[in-house]
Amino acid sequence: MPYISVEEHLPGITGLLEYRKDTAAPIRALTQVLLRGPSTLTEGERELIATIVSHRNKCTFCVTAHTAAADILLGEETTTAQIKENISTSQVSDKMKALLTIAAQVQESGKSVTTESVQKAKDTGASDTEIHDTVLIAALFCLYNRYVDGLSTVTPTDPAFYKGLAERLKNNGYNRLPQGYDHLKK
Amino acid sequence: MAHIKVDEGVPGIRSLVMFRPDTGQYLYELVQILLRGESTLSEAERELIAAYVSKRNDTMFCMMSHAAASRELYGNNKNIVDEVLNDMQQSHVSDKMKALLNIAGKVQVLGKEVKEEDIAAARQYGATDIEIHDTVLIAATFCMFNRYVDGLASLTPTDPKVYEEMGKRMANGYTMPPPSN
After folding, report:
1. Closest by Cα among A60, A150, A136 to B112
2. Is the pLDDT of residue B179 over 90?
3. Do residue B110 and residue A58 have CB atoms under 8 angstroms apart?
4. Range name among A13-17, A126-130, B5-9 with the lowest pLDDT average
5. Which of A53, A158, A185, B66 has the highest count of CB atoms within 10 angstroms of its CB?
């Protein structure tokens, strides 16, 4: 049971974003720019950053949702499984390994990011903007994970729910649906 | 030295939002609504939640600046801020604020740390759904800001006078600085 009264048909983050739409607007817009805006990182790669941080924050709703989104965007399910297990032995590029390592450090604390890990990202070809965006995406998911779990929102267990959600994230991104969410009522 | 090329001499979050204004504008918008928008929590109380979380995250820039803003907004009661930062439970804030700060402190650790009894304690002292919501979201938001500021090693001034001035400006609200060239 969520700690505050949110609409029952909207589990996880969606119920919270609908609960207070004026704070939701900049959070949604920020996420849309970071994860779907123009970038030299692919949408799939950016979803991997969201996945690794949510995984390490033990936020089941977010990690399941962003794993599903990354899987759809990448067209396979191996990479998400691998990075959650071990970033350095996963099949992602050296640059992505370096960026995911920075994201994992941000998850711990901003102070955990070392000059060496940033240098490694630069040595493997990461630009300042890619490093910036990695840190901000990781920090943003430290917000989301705490928001979702801190208010004890409902975490669906049916994999079909997350498939549907991931399709929505692929097709509509993070913008509020123009028609709202009443159509999801059963 | 910051990890990325930002304007030299510009401190903290300001240098980062000037580096990427298209993400920065939403960060400022969010903090303006949360800390200055309509609320049954005073602006001073909301700044105190921000300072308290930033202290626990050990982010000196955010802690010093939001503590300064909170002192400015508390006016004659500004000692409250340092009392809370030193020992929240022994401070003179209301029981409701203690319960809300306790929730914020749990959020700082991890979302799952917030337990039903923490929420029940806040309700017992009259906290509403929206106050609980806003406390969790302010705490979560500062877990983001703190990581952004420290994760990119942005400039952190050490002179307390710099923060006093900053606090006075922040008391008037949050507006985006002009983008860097």
Report:
1. A150
2. no
3. yes
4. B5-9
5. B66
